[in-house]
Design goal:
Elements lengths: L3 E7 L5 H13 L4 E6 L4 H7 L5 H10 L1 E4 L11 E3 L4 E3 L2 H8 L2 E9 L14 E7 L9 E5 L2 E4 L5 H17 L5 E5 L7 H13 L7 E5 H10 L6 E4 L1 H14 L8 E5 L3 E3 L18 H13 L3 H17 L13 H14 L2
Parallel strand pairs: 1-2, 1-3, 3-14, 7-12, 10-11, 10-12
Antiparallel strand pairs: 4-5, 6-7, 6-13, 8-9, 13-14
Helix pairs in contact: 1-9, 1-11, 5-6, 7-8, 9-10, 10-11
The structure holds nicotinamide-adenine-dinucleotide.
């Protein structure tokens, strides 16, 4: 009998509900059986349940272990989110979701698609960024010392460094990649980034089949816009990974195309690179491809590798054909039209 998968579905804010509906439409076309369990988070949850990350959403994710998520709006000036016993404090619902699900790796891919105009449309860009998300400068806390002085703390631990580096090399093995690069700034941060650098080369010895190299974040960013094919798998501490992954998405033709997965020991959830795009919400013009490809990453995680490949191939075909593209890709197409067209391609591959 065909396996059924349980997935926590977080439509999220802004364009979130439109693109999650589109992603579900495409995943349905694979005929893989998925039972979606609706969960609220973000502004939608605050309005209906009084909290941006309700306990029932976390409970559901802990039960299913898998989530498909739209973006969540982070309202400027919102009070910190406090969860749990003893309380843990987060600056945004996205950070809270990652923290409470013990997510340590955020994986984003950037692949050149034939048919999508970009600076490098003639180069076979295909890279993956493995970003550490449990520590770094985003979780160490920030404080104002005096009106004219503030400080932020960078957290780096041996455990998290080893976990992310090993995760990156194993991903490289699984995906038959060719090279692994650590990005850092260990020359000015010898204890924190230095710990990642030392750990990287120590763990790399367990994976002798891969050339391992390191680059400073400043040089790595310049190289990303000079020749992104320099890279294959990039492992990066939290903030460098955050910035590099948007840069990589821009390099291949826009934020709307980038998928992402968040991985912990027992929970993984999948979301596009971009945010809630409130400026275009509710107009059926958002590009759903980033979330559709995140859905393919989810299928892979569920062991549905063939289904994942069919979704990826259908997206490639859709983009190659180049009709009905959404406005961010220079077309006049719609979110729903994109989903229907990709779903049709999936059927032709079965
Ligand atoms: P954004 O990614 O939402 O939008 C940046 C620009 O890209 C906008 O012009 C938008 O219209 C466009 N864009 C983004 N996604 C698109 C798509 N799929 N199709 C077509 N165009 C698209 O970034 P922002 O404006 O800085 O953030 C908006 C909100 O989203 C903020 O509240 C932010 O905190 C939140 N956010 C959430 C996440 C997340 O949930 N993981 C990530 C980033 C930002």
């Amino acid at each position: 009998m065909q396996k059924r998968h349980r997935v926590s579905l977080i439509p999220g804010d802004g364009i979130g509900p439109e693109i999650t509906e589109a992603a579900i439409r495409v995943l349905e076309a694979t005929n893989i059986k998925i039972d979606y369990e609706l969960c609220l988070a973000g502004v939608a949850a605050e309005e209906r349940l009084g909290a941006p990350l309700p306990e029932e959403t976390l409970k559901n994710l802990r039960q299913t272990g898998i989530g498909l998520k739209g973006p969540l709006i982070v309202k400027p000036g919102s009070p910190p989110i406090v969860i749990g016993q003893p309380p843990r404090t987060y600056g945004s619902p996205n950070a809270a979701l990652r923290g409470e699900c013990d997510i340590f790796a955020n994986v984003r891919t950037a692949k050149r698609f034939i048919g999508v105009p970009s600076r490098f449309s003639d180069l076979p860009v295909d890279l993956v960024i493995v970003r550490e998300v449990s520590e770094g400068i985003y979780v160490g806390g920030e404080r104002k010392i005096k009106p004219d002085r503030a400080e932020a703390v960078v957290v780096a631990t041996q455990k998290a460094a080893e976990q992310i580096v090993r995760f990156g090399f194993k991903l490289a093995q699984r995906e038959h990649r060719k090279k692994v690069t650590l990005v850092h700034k260990a020359n000015v941060l010898p204890y924190t980034d230095g710990l990642y650098l030392e750990t990287f080369y120590r763990v790399a010895r367990e994976f002798p089949e891969f050339p391992a190299e390191d680059r400073m974040i400043d040089a790595a960013s310049a190289q990303m816009v000079l020749d992104p094919t320099t890279y294959d798998v990039i492992i990066a501490p939290n903030q460098y990974g955050d910035i590099l992954s948007d840069l990589a998405a821009a390099v291949i033709g826009g934020l709307g195309l980038g998928p992402g997965g968040n991985y912990g020991e027992s929970i993984a959830f999948f979301e596009a690179c971009h945010g809630a795009a409130p400026d275009i919400a509710g107009r059926n013009i958002a590009n759903p491809i980033g979330l559709i490809l995140s859905g393919a990453m989810m299928l892979d995680y569920c062991g549905e590798h063939e289904g994942a490949t069919r979704v990826q191939r259908a997206v490639e075909e859709f983009l190659k054909q180049g009709s009905e593209l959404t406005p961010d890709l220079g077309g006049t197409g719609t979110t729903t039209g994109t989903a229907e067209a990709i779903a049709r391609f999936i059927k032709t591959f079965s």
